[in-house]
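Exercise 7. Given the encoded structure of a 171-residue chain, write a plausible sequence.
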């Protein structure tokens, strides 16, 4: 079932559609909340409030479009938190030429930290770093060997004789 069907059924006050939506998308939302808020009690409270908020906004829609209903309810909740009240005039005429301000998304420092943290924990990042460190160590080892052979630094056996014995069998 697509999310559009779920939203439409939720707008028709179908409680089973809301439960299906929480089954389908709830875990992803909860895992994102837990990443940002590691305290389980805080994450549970935020998840519960979010789901209740979505359920209430879908049960008392302001308009026909489900996404518009959620966005309007969210805007009302933010205005309520900031202590703003809606102005109600005696004559409420729809204004056709209103354009919303242009939204520019800017990554916050917290979001950038999460991306860096994810990158550092990834398997391929660790494998790549291991290969880079091994390559750097090999270059230093070879460079020291060349400097010793040229007589620029005193000779110390850093495993070159062992490597020569191993590779002599292949040649």
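Solution.
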């Amino acid at each position: 079932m697509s999310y559009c069907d779920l939203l439409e059924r939720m707008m028709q006050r179908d409680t089973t559609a809301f439960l299906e939506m929480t089954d389908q998308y709830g875990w992803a939302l909860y895992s994102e909340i837990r990443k940002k808020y590691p305290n389980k009690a805080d994450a549970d409270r935020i998840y519960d409030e979010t789901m209740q908020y979505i359920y209430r906004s879908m049960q008392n829609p302001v308009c026909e479009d489900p996404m518009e209903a959620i966005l309007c309810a969210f805007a009302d909740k933010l205005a309520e938190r900031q202590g703003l009240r809606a102005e109600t005039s005696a004559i409420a005429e729809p204004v056709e030429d209103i354009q919303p301000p242009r939204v520019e998304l800017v990554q916050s420092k917290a979001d950038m930290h999460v991306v860096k943290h994810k990158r550092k924990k990834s398997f391929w990042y660790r494998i790549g770093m291991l290969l880079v460190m091994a390559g750097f160590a090999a270059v230093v080892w070879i460079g020291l060997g060349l400097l010793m052979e040229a007589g620029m630094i005193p000779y110390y056996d850093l495993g070159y004789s062992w490597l020569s014995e191993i590779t002599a069998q292949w040649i």
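Remark. The chain is about 70% helix and 0% strand. Students should compare their own answers with the one above.
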